[in-house]
Structure formats: structure tokens, C-alpha cells
């Protein structure tokens, strides 16, 4: 039995390079030349996939939203086609509290980019709309939505460095959020 490992496409390598540069230096310092150099391709090779820096940023945001969507769903094996409300919320809580620093930095830089590139917000808006619609069904939708919004707010406070919760506060917040999620059916 042979196992094949899927090699990343050229487009994926370019998006990986762009993500790395944005996480390290911010969106405002992202250039076509820097991405091409980091990915080990020519500028023409990059432009083949992304005509402009804006196209590159849009693709990067779209890919991030897809990754967040997959992570937040952590989904469905064939044996378990739907994830319970409790499980979905536990995954959101885990993602909020356990997000790697590099991913937080990338998200923070992309949030800052929205000030000068407002069109970048659309993929995130679609993800939130879909996620909140899924949570907004059922008899306990109010509590489920409140918990999801609280986790999103906590992450935003963290990303924007508006407040730094102590380790003890984070532990209590996580425990309380998990207890609330457990009460949902």
C-alpha cells in the first residue's frame, strides 16, 4: 500500500510565503517582490497566480477564513455527519484559548489591513454570518449565540491587545465557557 503525500501547489507556496511575511512584518510591508523571494519564485511566477498585491491579500484572507471554518467545525467523520451544539461550542472555546501565537499575529495584521483595504472583510463577514446562523437554531440558540459572541469578543480583545487577562482569569473564563457549553443539548 503506497501513501502519497500531496505536495503544495505553487499557489499554496505563495500564500504560505505571504502569510509568513504578513505575520512577521504586517500587511503594509507586504510586497510582490518579497513574497516571490520568500517563495523562491520569480516575480512573473507570482503574477501568474496573483495579478496584484490586492489579489494576493484577498486570496490570503479567503484561505484563512476557510482554515478557521474547518478548524471551528473540526467536522464530520462519515460516522458522525453532524457535530452537536456542545461539541461545536467546545471547539470554538478551544480555538479561542489555544490559537497559536503565529496565527494570532497573522489575524491581527489582517485586521489592521481592513482599515486601508475594506473589501478584505467580506470573507470574514460570510464566515460569521454562516456560523451564527448555524448556532441561531434550536431552543437554546440565545445561549449558544451569546457564548460564541463572547469567545469572538475575547479573541478580539486579545488580538487588539485591549486587555491581557492573567493566566488565572483565562483559566476561569475557559472553565465557565465550557460549563455553559455543557448545559446545551
Short recap of the structure:
By secondary structure, the chain is an all-alpha fold. The protein has one domain (10-182): Tetracycline Repressor, domain 2 (Orthogonal Bundle).
Could you walk me through the main structural features you see in this protein, from its secondary elements to its overall organization?
This protein is mainly α and 185 residues long. It has a single domain, classed as Tetracycline Repressor, domain 2, CATH 1.10.357. It contains 9 helices and no strands. It has helices spanning 10-25, 32-39, 43-49, 53-73, 85-98, 101-113, 121-135, 141-159, 167-182. The model is unreliable at 75-81 (pLDDT under 50).
* Count of all domains: 1
The name of the CATH superfamily reads: Tetracycline Repressor, domain 2
Q: How many DSSP-defined strands?
A: 0
CATH secondary-structure class: Mainly Alpha
- Inertia-based shape: elongated
Distance between the termini: 42 Å
The CATH topology label is: Tetracycline Repressor, domain 2
Topology (elements, then pairings):
Blueprint: H1 10-25, H2 32-39, H3 43-49, H4 53-73, H5 85-98, H6 101-113, H7 121-135, H8 141-159, H9 167-182
